[in-house]
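> tool_call: predict_assembly(chains=two)
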Amino acid sequence: MSLANTQVHFRDKQIQMAHGAGGEASRRLVEGLFEPAFSNPQLSALSDAAVLDLISNRVAISTDCFVVRPLRFPGGSIGELAVNGTVNDLAVSGATPAALTVTFILEAGLDSDVLRQEVLAMAEAARRANVPIVAGDTKVVEHGKADGMYISTTGLGPVDARSELNPQRVQPGDQVIFSGPIGAHGITIMIARHDVELEADIQSDTRPLLSLVGALIEQVGRDVRWMRDATRGGVATVLNELARDTKLVVELIEESIPVDDAVRGACELLGLDPLHVANEGQFVAIVSNEKASQAVDALRRVPGGEQACIVGQIGEGRVPRVVAKAAYGGTRIVDTLIGDPLPRIC
Amino acid sequence: MSLANTQVHFRDKQIQMAHGAGGEASRRLVEGLFEPAFSNPQLSALSDAAVLDLISNRVAISTDCFVVRPLRFPGGSIGELAVNGTVNDLAVSGATPAALTVTFILEAGLDSDVLRQEVLAMAEAARRANVPIVAGDTKVVEHGKADGMYISTTGLGPVDARSELNPQRVQPGDQVIFSGPIGAHGITIMIARHDVELEADIQSDTRPLLSLVGALIEQVGRDVRWMRDATRGGVATVLNELARDTKLVVELIEESIPVDDAVRGACELLGLDPLHVANEGQFVAIVSNEKASQAVDALRRVPGGEQACIVGQIGEGRVPRVVAKAAYGGTRIVDTLIGDPLPRIC
């Protein structure tokens, strides 16, 4: 990792209650680990609040907490997820992240190396998304009152004036675009957790979506009507929310939904619909019929967007809902889940 | 509570994993509880990010997490603390809160009434501080992997142009002002937790500091050099940080430190120095010698500021530190704590 030689000089072997008490031990943690890893002028002030220069009449703000188990998994970790997740919520709102804040809830007894790894993963992810981490807070709870660590992040940034994202702008005939193959994150976590005994070469898709979303807005501007990243509950959930908000029908074409073979195999084995499985690096966009092909072409030119495709369209119907049509007859309703097949996925 | 008739229609008896899964149960929780309680236009959009109109070249941002045990205590609760804590970090940065975000980490099995109470307490505290809660996220972890609930809040708002708060502006001769009596919050929590068997009429001092700080800036403007609210680690900790940052000496006058009798009694019994005990509604301000009396007068005119007073001054010395001088001889060094006598105080 490019940050390996960051001047991290926090040497305590384990996290103890005192590291959350605001005294000397807290100071060692903040100045020995967080400050060098997240180094930037605002954070270094170490006051109660960071001060930003932020002139925009449309600033997006988003917050998320992360409780994923295990903390590390193929393709990523809780720290990387915590940065990318909030960065992506801003990205699909048409915003460019200007600042992130972070809070840690640590379990007493946590190996300091585990924390160090996650802090460096966050610093690396923040650097990749070009966003400073400007403020933070840490609390420690007794052993057995958490599960290693939980992280919350909040991000904010100005909304791109060229975009106008609003479900009310979605209309029949608009096309549904996926940024790439779905389901990798959720399946990765289940395998990492041994919830399923499976040998498969699957990695989480966690990544920042800024360049993909940027290319889309650059190419078709206001013809992107609406975007969401499809995390918990998968694309089925965000599309059902869209159907409900617009009172329209989302018509997916079963065969065009991009799912990698290994993920599809795992889903079949587990009786899961990939549409319900969490992603951490994919988004759904609704684009006008006229500009949909241009939008897909623009996405495909961006590294990581090669598999972007149109997966369906917006239609009308008596009942707002999401349906999937198979080429050879048959239409099924794609509902949201009531239970939780995949707890603590992010 | 004035919010008792808010249209909260969340009826599930307990929090289950599904309430954190992003599907139907999550929707019931968000739309049945969070949305009606925190009702405001930005939150109602229920998208991935809230959009704010925020034009300022100095926007303060602050974040905090709350793991206080027990969740409710005389004078307050975790939800109220979570709002007031972040509001106050902004206030002592000279900023007016414009928006708050919140994340909840809930333990499966949590009684929904407990959550409902805290959500309403947050809504009431936000209303009191006149700040909307514009975005949020909820995760649920297995029973035994949290302690009821943990809350993170982030706040942001424009900095008052009349203030210029910076430890580098602090100079010898400046006066040290406390907004009121110290130590109530920490002692309240210890008693509520039965860490100490004591019958005492002590309540947490949790409250928003906006009107007190506003009156101070209104009265003496740039003559306030520096402010901090004195939470974890008490005033001793924030003053030690000030000494370190300024390389100056903070000279307190032992007899002038305001401590309520019941708090003082409890501290004596426990062998605690009130200077180390957490507050949730008090701040320390450094004000120029010329304007210090005016500053105290302005604070005393605000309800809740009646006991504001000068407790010492800034001096010079070979070693930056905090000292307390007693009237009848003797000067002691007031250090920060290394251990944690009061874990999970906020």
